[in-house]
Amino acid sequence: MSVITKSAQHPAGRRRDVLRVLRAANAPMSIVAIANVLDVHPNTVRFHLDNLVSTGRVEQVAPERKGPGRPPLMFRATRQMDRGGPRRYRLLAEILSIGFASGRDADARALAAGRAWGRKLESPRRTAAGTIGAGESIEHLVDLLDELGFAPERRGDEYVGLRHCPFLELAETRTSVVCPIHLGLMQGALETWHAPVTVDRLDAFAEPDLCLAHLSRQVAAT
């Protein structure tokens, strides 16, 4: 009985059908056997199997030898979650932000999470004296924010402007959670670098196309 559907006429749909047949099978199948189930030409199955094998969703297995002649190629579905499926990281971010926002001291916990993240980021090279200057710290912070997708602009030694938010849609609805995470990220990174500057405030959407990080000098311990 054929398992062809209208959507299967599309290459991606046909590929899903090949994978579905292999997952339902109790043993490895040949190209001809798969083609018979789907009522398609074996070359069609072969084409989709090449893709499925290259992406790790299907594996070729050694055939059992029964009599003379070359045995057919045998295939089975890889026993793992489908790595070719869609991702929903924005949904995960929304769930996590709701969790942060629903508890007490949401902004403080978000700030702490951002700091923990920032402390894990790469440190800049230090001078021979083992210190890092304020200007170098700010430059490295700008480079870091650029790598993370914030489109930063250095504004002297007092501000860093952020022209893009990697989590924009979430930041617009969960500002009290997302923006403290960003502030904590910058603070945690600078703390780990033992930089003589820190970010003491982040003005979210200070302008329609700009967030503004306020820099300040760290007071040396006496």
Which blocks of ≥5 consecutive residues have pLDDT under 50? 1-8
Shape: elongated
Write the CATH homologous superfamily of the largest domain: Trafficking protein particle complex subunit 3
Q: Name the beta content range.
A: 15-25%
Which oligomeric state applies?
Answer: single chain
Amino-to-carboxy terminus distance:
83 Å
CATH hierarchy class name of the largest domain: Alpha Beta
Number of strands: 7
Organism: Mycobacterium fragae
InterPro entries: WH-like_DNA-bd_sf (IPR036388), WH_DNA-bd_sf (IPR036390)
Protein name: Transcriptional regulator
Describe what you observe in this structure:
The protein has 222 residues and is of the alpha+beta class. The protein folds into 2 domains: 67 residues, Orthogonal Bundle (Arc Repressor Mutant, subunit A); 121 residues, Muramoyl-pentapeptide Carboxypeptidase, domain 2, CATH 3.30.1380. Helices cover 45% and strands 17% of the residues. The chain has a 4-stranded antiparallel sheet with strand order 4-5-7-6. A 3-stranded antiparallel sheet has the order 1-3-2. A hairpin with a 2-residue loop joins β6 and β7. The radius of gyration is 27 Å and the shape is elongated. The N terminus is likely disordered.
Condensed summary:
Helices cover 45% and strands 17% of the residues. By secondary structure, it is of the alpha+beta class. Strand 4 (152-155) and strand 5 form a beta hairpin.
